[in-house]
Specification:
The chain is of the alpha+beta class. It contains three helices and three strands. The protein has a three-stranded antiparallel beta sheet, with no helix packed on it. The longest helix has 7 residues. The two termini are about 30 Å apart.
Length: about 80
């Protein structure tokens, strides 16, 4: 588990990044969960409100469907941000 504090455009507060095991790990596929911790930024019973209330990308201002349809930029973990 990796604990992180986020102060982004949408996500705030303490989060835990947890690598999952199970069938995906056995097939050497990485499977991760990002879990919101109970802190001063947490809103109990908010469900998916962060996505429903803020559906557009902070970086592009587009919806996920528009981004998927265009595919003008794909992130690769082994490239620097300038490799765009």
């Amino acid at each position: 588990m990796l604990a992180q504090i986020l102060q982004g455009e949408k996500l705030h507060g303490n989060w835990a990044l947890v690598r999952m095991g199970g069938k995906a790990a056995g097939k050497r596929r990485e499977n991760w969960l990002l879990i919101k911790e109970r802190d001063e930024e947490a809103v109990p019973q908010s469900g998916d409100a962060i996505v429903a209330d803020n559906p557009l990308s902070v970086a592009t201002g587009r919806s996920l469907d528009a981004i998927a349809d265009d595919r003008d930029w794909v992130w690769h973990s082994n490239e620097s941000r300038s490799g765009r």
